[in-house]
Amino acid sequence: MLVMWNIDKKAFSLVLDNASSNDACVKELLKDQLGKTLLANGNVFHQRCGCHILNLVVQDGLSVVNEKIAKVREAMKFFRHSQARMERFKLAASQANIAFKKPAWDVATRWNSTYLMLELALYLRPAIDRYETLDMNFKLNPTDLAWDEMEALMDCLKIFYNATLKFSASKYPTLNHFFPEFCDVYWTSGNTLLSIACLLDPRCKREVVEYYFKLIYPGNHKCSQACGTSSSSTVSNIRAGLKSLLAEKKTADPMKTELEQYLTQPLDHTALDEEFDILAWWKLKMSTYQVLSRLARDILAVPASTVASESTFSTSGRTLSVERNSLNDESIEALICAQDWLRVKAKENGEDVGETIWPSVEATPDDTICGSEA
């Protein structure tokens, strides 16, 4: 495929999920001529999808609390079982003085939809408590302890949810965000590409790598924080520590090499905001760091996940279906291109394209919450 599209000499990195078949594919690619033309002999060629790794971590954690989540899910389904229940639930929401939101449940294969379901359920809790007094048949209201546990779970999931959104972005580089957001996952595998991306971020460099390493492996130091500390406050403490670290760096020695000069420059604490454009920063530094700027352009172009590319090339459903099972290659290509062009035009006109241009055979019912594919 690479040779057919004439990109075998242009390939730099390949982002894939954790399937063993993908690992085998990469090994085969590196055995061929491709491995001889890659940076660092292919050591930075294979990048594992950050969102897929997050998914594996979260799914493993959710398996411990599946029973409690199931009760929330059944409660959401209960209200949608009949129109009479929905009307009574609307009344309960009104009496609880909250704006009504339609109950919805998650999709089993998408953990982020579980997070969104819990967020919705916690918002609707006053209405659910009120509904219990209106319908004696309703036995699915979680206990106060269960609600507290769900709130704590949502607090944990929020960290992963926000990280997934950051890794899935398509408007800015994402690889340099990978290490700080994901510092304790796969550390021992020695991911060279992530380390380089972090070093090439003028806000991070090696100081951040060392900072997080000490947090993850404190040696003989005992953990001073209690387990009950919320994840949001923990992250705030880490960020605060990083900000105080920024002021401690000294200026660079002008006689050092380009790499040494860059690494010994003070961290750019003026760029600690979400709008920081790291590629624009390196473009401005091209005259100072002629080699590093070119390296940064290549390294930082590698996405942290496959979400953006999968979304770009996804047709949101089956292209070949029972109704379209005799289409030839040219017709399928024409349909996919036409769909993409129509969607772009509709978006430019501010229209809601939704599923109106090409309805999906596998459209998700509106009574479920759909997260991203990751």
Please give a handful of descriptors for the protein shown.
374 residues, 53% helix, mainly alpha, two-stranded parallel sheet
Could you please describe the fold and organization of this structure?
By secondary structure, the protein is mainly α. The protein has a domain at 1-48. Helices cover 53% and strands 3% of the residues. The chain contains 16 helices and four strands. The chain has helices at residues 20-31, 34-37, 50-62, 66-79, 83-95, 111-134, 144-167, 175-181, 192-199, 205-216, 231-246, 258-264, 278-284, 290-299, 307-313, 329-348, and strands at 14-16, 46-48, 105-106, 368-369. The strands form two sheets. The chain has a two-stranded parallel sheet with strand order 1-2. Helix 5 (83-95) crosses helix 6. The longest helix is centred in the N-terminal third of the chain and has 24 residues, at 111-134. The protein is extended. The model is unreliable at 184-190, 220-232, 234-239, 241-255 and 353-366 (pLDDT under 50). It holds the Pfam family Dimer_Tnp_hAT. InterPro entries: hAT-like_transposase_RNase-H (IPR025525), HATC_C_dom (IPR008906), RNaseH-like_sf (IPR012337), ZnF_BED_domain_contain (IPR052035). It comes from Rhynchospora tenuis. Its main location: nucleus.
